[in-house]
Design brief:
With about 170 residues, this protein is mainly alpha-helical. It is about 85% helix and about 0% strand. It contains 6 helices and no strands.
Length: about 170
Amino acid sequence: MFSFSLFAQGLSPLLARAFYARQNTITPVFIGLTTIVLNALLAYHFSKALGVAGMAAGFSIASIFNALVLFIVIRIQILRETISTPNVIFEFDGLILSSSIKILFASLLMGLAGWGVLYLINPIVNTHTTFGLLIQAGTASVSAVVIYLLLCFYLKLPQAQKLLGPLLKNRSR
């Protein structure tokens, strides 16, 4: 349950720092306090039905809420300031949306590939031993990461192009 909000947990401090850099400390504090209340309410509500997993679900939902509200508010503030050149912010939005869809697609296929390799290798290794589990998990993880990086490269994500471009150019010679 916690892993669903990892991206939000990573983005929230970054977005809060963006407010601080703009000399605006009250907005992230207010949003943070609202998030704490939401977290408590959701954790209490979901824990009745799901137990400890419900508490984690409440935390994840509140974390996503926090990052989303911080992003929306700072985007609105920046858009107000750059109203004379709105194309810049809309190009940025398009880039974020396009990249997010590509990353989501690559992540989904990465997860499926990792899961598939995990079960393909299961009959080959002895999963009743630590070494067998290590081999199984390691092979699935490496396969998933390689597939993710290759998909990101072929989907033309700039970071993957920069990382894999020189490697793949040398292989094609």
